[in-house]
Design goal:
The complex is a heterodimer of chains A (296) and B (365).
Chain A (H helix, E strand, L loop, with lengths): L1 H29 L7 H19 L2 H25 L4 H24 L22 H4 L2 H18 L2 H11 L1 H6 L4 H27 L10 H11 L4 H21 L6 H16 L20
Chain B lengths: L1 H36 L4 H4 L2 H8 L1 H26 L7 H18 L5 H30 L3 H24 L25 H5 L11 H18 L1 H11 L1 H6 L4 H17 L1 H10 L10 H11 L4 H24 L6 H30 L1
Classes of the chains: A mainly alpha (296), B mainly alpha (365).
Chain lengths: 296, 365
């Protein structure tokens, strides 16, 4: 029983940053903008949250800083890709590099160490016992991430804003012919893909109790994989994040000798390649994904 | 007539030179601002980037050593770019290449030297080529965009080689996850060990070696292939318009996977540099983003072999300069990572803005 509970808790915890990042990526990709800077956004979010928490000791300040940090990187992505028309992948690669360099640079400046920050004084989630404690044991950010899934689904599929946003990713010319601004819709989507993953970053550093160099450790890419594996839909994304989270916490809880951790960590990447190749039904990206939109 | 041609050539050269130079100037200016903001003098810090490299032949040789893998990954990314493909998998491909070279050397330690070296170089290239061909084939066969698959394969390559090393090939009694040393018949020797190198004043510890010549030969080969070979012509045709290329009877699918295989082979040759010359073994997780810097080098060098050589040289200076900054100032060396990221953003932004201005001018006239 306690193993099962541990698995459940572990799955939900591992899935939390993936969910935030994946939901952010869903808005951006649905609007036609590839955002592989999710990795860097997670990292910047983690760092901003840690720095704000260490400076102020306030959870609210930490979360706000994480969202602002993510927003800043996403705004750069929007400026370079939407305003200047630069290739979205190139921009993402550069922003990930920038996030890595800038966080480490600031770590040295603020804390005199490139490896990890001082301890964050905020209370970290405690040990786990009994089903009744599930509500208390899970960090609030995990609940927020789970609640964000239907909320984002509603925003994307049940509102006029969401419809227009998806249209900007499927057929931008049609959106423009209605007199709507494709670029403004995409800007909103890209900014969402900065703020939400920023929270995912905050979960990483606040949960660990300090910021560690390169602590996103590929989770932004795994979130991207989950998004593709979940076919760019909120429900699919949730399922994929839970699956990837489950696999990792299974290894963590059971320590199966025949299942090396490094294989478990490879699983999301392998599954995504298989899904993309069409082995499990076709996984079709938004039609205008990655295509810059020019008014002229 | 010839004067017109000359003027055109100069204009073309200037046209391709100024965006990288402007990007460099922009990134250096921002870095100067950062340095000033943390209370250090930009005039004292930024020249350190170039001090060691320009200070002595030994220092310059170190710059060349750091530039060598970047030439290879830059060429790798550029070859794919020329075919309209974006290979962000050079990182994974170079891991597989390095692992294959080391694996061959460990499996056949008794091979005579004349056979050992070419076989190891070939193993590195083939390993990289295999890892590159996978996303190429998936693109050609299923139409899956190569970007996602190359990202995924980067992680799989690092995980897989790391697992194999930890589980089967780890040097006994060692905490560090690396293989035992490979046999001496597989070693490339640094120039500093030769009489000529000593005469030139290279310090005994200077690591520069024949992998530089391999990188230069690769640049020459890429240039010649792009310019004169049928394969290069087909690659460029597919890159400029796959539909038109198909109409012209070019087998686009085959060109696509072959382009990715070639791109992977170039990245795989980094294994020659790291395993045969430098480490003499395979180290888990050894590359700190050489494949990603290759993207920066290719963009900065505008996908031209000569430009790539220059860009790799520049990034080689940054790499040695980062150490100088670390040792002699209070500025963290990660300033250089920020600088490199800014260069990428600036060079592509300036390129796009210039293209837009050209379009506008053309429409106006």
């Amino acid at each position: 029983m306690s193993i099962l509970l541990g698995l459940l808790l572990g799955t939900l915890r591992t899935a939390t940053p993936l969910l935030f990042a994946g939901l952010g990526g869903m808005f951006s990709e649905r609007a036609g903008v590839v955002n592989i800077a999710l990795e860097g956004i997670l990292l910047v979010g983690a760092f901003s949250a840690a720095a704000a928490a260490i400076a102020t000791g306030s959870l609210a300040a930490a979360l706000l800083a994480a969202m602002l940090g993510g927003l800043l990187l996403a705004a750069l992505h929007a400026l370079v890709t939407l305003r200047f028309g630069v290739d979205q992948i190139v921009s993402g690669v550069a922003l990930n590099m920038l996030a890595m360099g800038a966080t480490e640079f600031l770590m040295w400046l603020l804390y005199g160490s490139g490896a990890n920050s001082p301890r964050i004084a905020l209370a970290a989630p405690g040990g786990e016992r009994g089903l009744g404690q599930l509500l208390v044991e899970l960090p609030p950010l995990t609940w927020l991430a789970l609640a964000a899934v239907p909320a984002c689904g509603w925003l994307l599929f049940a509102t006029r804003f969401g419809l227009r946003l998806r249209a900007a990713g499927e057929h931008p010319e049609a959106v423009a012919s209605l007199g709507l601004s494709v670029l403004r819709l995409r800007l909103a989507a890209v900014l969402l893909s900065g703020a939400l993953p920023g929270l995912g970053g905050a979960f990483l550093s606040l949960g660990a109790g300090y910021f560690v160099k390169n602590m996103s450790a590929g989770r932004g890419y795994i979130a991207l994989a989950a998004l593709i594996f979940g076919r760019w839909r909120p429900g699919g994304l949730l399922a994929a994040c839970l699956l990837f989270g489950f696999a990792e916490s299974l290894q963590g809880q059971l320590q199966l000798p025949w299942l090396p951790l490094r294989f478990v960590q490879m699983l999301p990447y392998l599954l995504t390649m298989v899904a993309l190749a069409g082995a499990i039904g076709r996984s079709r990206p938004p039609a205008a994904l990655g295509r810059p939109f020019r008014r002229d | 007539m010839t004067r017109v041609a000359l003027a055109r050539a100069l204009a073309a050269l200037g046209g391709s030179l100024w965006p990288p130079l402007a990007a460099l100037a922009f990134a250096l200016a921002v870095s100067a601002g950062i340095v000033a903001a943390i209370g250090e003098s930009p005039a004292a810090v930024l020249p350190l980037l170039f001090r060691q490299g320009l200070g002595s032949l030994d220092g310059f040789a170190r710059v060349l050593f750091d530039a060598t893998p970047l030439v290879l990954t830059g060429l790798s990314v550029a070859w794919a770019f020329r075919g309209g493909l974006f290979n962000i998998g050079a990182e994974g491909q170079l891991y597989v290449g390095a692992f294959c070279a080391a694996g061959l050397a460990l499996a056949l330690p008794g091979l005579p030297r004349w056979l050992a070296l070419p076989a190891a170089v070939l193993a590195a290239a083939l390993g990289g080529a295999l890892w590159g061909a996978i996303p190429g084939w998936l693109r050609a066969r299923f139409g899956v965009h190569e970007v996602i698959n190359t990202i995924m394969l980067n992680f799989i390559a690092v995980g897989l080689t790391g697992y194999l090393v930890q589980r089967y090939l780890k040097e006994p009694g060692q905490m560090i996850p690396h293989t035992p040393r490979i046999a001496a018949s597989y070693h490339l020797h640094p120039f500093a060990e030769s009489a000529a190198g000593r005469a030139l004043g290279l310090s005994p510890a200077n690591p520069l070696g024949p992998s530089l010549l391999i990188a230069l030969a690769a640049a020459l080969a890429v240039w010649a292939l792009l310019r004169w070979s049928v394969a290069g012509y087909r690659l460029r045709a597919v890159g400029q318009g796959p539909e038109a290329a198909r109409q012209a009877g070019i087998p686009v699918g085959r060109v696509t996977w072959q382009a990715m295989a070639m791109s992977g082979a170039l990245a795989g040759l980094v294994g020659v540099h790291d395993v045969l010359l430098y480490r003499h073994r395979f180290l888990d997780n050894f590359s700190s983003g050489l494949g990603f810097l290759g993207i920066a080098v290719a963009l900065m060098g505008r996908n031209h072999p000569l430009g790539i050589l220059l860009a790799a040289l520049l990034f080689g200076f940054f790499s040695t300069g980062a150490l100088e900054i670390d040792i002699f100032t209070e500025v963290p060396r990660e300033l250089v990572v920020v600088l490199q990221a800014l260069i990428i953003l600036a060079v592509v932004s300036i390129g796009e803005l210039a293209a837009r201005a050209r379009r506008r001018r053309r429409r106006a006239s």
